[in-house]
Amino acid sequence: MRCLRLGDVIPGMILARPARTLDGGVLARPGLALTDELIGRLREQGLHELWVVPPGSPVPDPTVPEYLDRYGPDFAARLQGVFAAAMVNRTMQNLFLGALGHASDCYRRYRLSDREDH
Amino acid sequence: MTLGESTVLDRLRLIQSLPALPMVVGAVTRRITHDSASSGEIARLLGHDQALTARVLRLANSAFYAPREAVRSPEHAVVLLGLGTVRAIVLKASIFSAFAVTQARGFWLHALGAACAARAVARLGSLGRGDDAFVLGLLHDLGKLALAEHLPEEYALVRARVARDGGLIRQAEIAELGCDHAAVGRFLCEHWSLPYEYRAAIGAHHDLDQAEGEHQPWAACVHIADIIARAMLIGNGGDQAMPILDPRAMRMVGLQESDLGALFAATEKELGKAEVFFTIING
Question: ipTM > 0.90?
Fold first, then answer.
């Protein structure tokens, strides 16, 4: 499964995660084979990325796409912002480091490796 | 001038439209809490509410559970899903639909993230009963919904304060209203006669001393889960800040600080199972 920029999506690829509007509405459901027309419609709706699998591949188990997407390239800065006023003791510092390590691991698994495979 | 906790709760009490839970929800919740509840009995209770029955059947027939053959009877669905999942569906669908206020998607994601984290805390620690923990995590910010709907002008001030000053939404609630969403959540649990551990866990998830001794571990479970969900950037609890982890909390649930890494991983795994639940109970 890969998260691709819309310009990199090729007709025939299968949608692996729901394509959603910003307010959560579902525009297209997983399992749908993407066509030029559908890709164009999704672009018109303001989408920039889609989670896809190659043509003919099974759609993986369901996972909320926001959970995969939440660790974008700015994850370290966002975590620092959330923890900014909370580094008051060693426990909280360890919690921050644990969260940072987990986010880094997820970013590598969900984002970088998919793009490298592609 | 702040309103104060008694004023806020008095105003909620006076609101005639404060919703009552459907009778079937109370009955199902109480029976599932009782250890001797049977799937047949729960299915018969569910049968009084067609919409709830339909949701339970939809989830049981979904690709996630992948039954070998179609699940057509509520009893079969209850056996397949388990009593804890059925209770989560019933409470989530009923309680949150009782509020008309539209919440941002981030609110639901945070609730579901806390639910997944609470299940991980309960399973990795000594509490067990992961499904109960899931429900508590899902409902822990119930008070925010009631405040946003029934005191909209006052709650707008709370949001404005968070936007202006940063910090925790709980601190802004106390500054503007004189009480926080946890106290309101406890009040709602009492209003709906939910099990006592719900009142304790939801009412004390920011201050463990607000829970009586035997219920403190459940409050600690939700306290940790809320923090884990925030640390994993799951959804939005109304602010972009981090509460301080109570130093007693991990011990209360049978875990150590060194288990935090395992909690992150276990919560991530739980999230992978969450979409079907999220979609169907909102559908």
Answer: no
